[in-house]
Amino acid sequence: TRRLPVKSFVQLIKLFLFFVGLILAVAVITKESPFFFLSGLGVATGLVMLVFRDTILGFVAGIQLAANRMISPGDWIQMDKYGADGAVVEVSLTTVKVQNWDNTITMIPAYALVSDAFKNWQGMSESGGRRIKRAINIEISSVRFLTEQDKAKLLSVNHLKQYLPKVEAEIGEINSHTTDIENLVNGRRLTNLGTFRAYLREFLKDHQNVHKGMTLLVRQLAPTQTGVPIELYIFTNDTRWATYEDIQADIFDHIFAILPEFDLRAYQAPSGTDVRSVSLRSE
Length: 283
What we know:
The chain is of the alpha+beta class. It has 2 domains: about 120 residues, SH3 type barrels (Roll); about 90 residues, Alpha-Beta Plaits (2-Layer Sandwich), CATH 3.30.70. The chain contains 11 helices and 8 strands.
């Protein structure tokens, strides 16, 4: 269960008792009935609203935050408008105190959390899975059909031993109804990119740090001037920041290293070394 921001309600009670005590004190001094002063509060309502605007807005916001379980101490929230990205330390009547990951402190007006958009990462922490959504851009010129030698080589890859025979049988059935199959344009054929995607799916399904109960996608996005993106949309089974980053890095380290096995190349903008190499070859 999530903790309620009790401090807001404590401050509200203190504020209420302060006003009651103030009215009683003035009533004793002036020897007037407390109800006499209460009847005059309507006239002073506008002034009170002006003076205690933030307090009133904060109180209303505090009620909404508590009732809707929008935020609690310990939650990780992100609110770019106020430069907040860290753990909620304190929720008071008018402000929310956030300790950012760089150990700085950000104070956010409570009503801003109701009127403006913010991101609460607590649901991610409680779900047990943290999303990886990252793509690798493949050079389109490296995409080609697989040769028989390629297929024989890839059959020794554990994650492709079931995929290749199955797809080959499906393609063979389709191509049996096609004439002039020797022409590459006719019929269907396996590509190195499609086989690479199939490998990644099986690799991630067997990965010990990928959450098995959440979405697992390896998808091809629209091609751009930087190549054709192959995106991984998966969830790790450990939500701790440092561990999550290690898992993500290990997966992509493997992907970068395995690309040559499929005769694929990742897109990389030319660097100074590339330009110098071209210049030397042209001389």
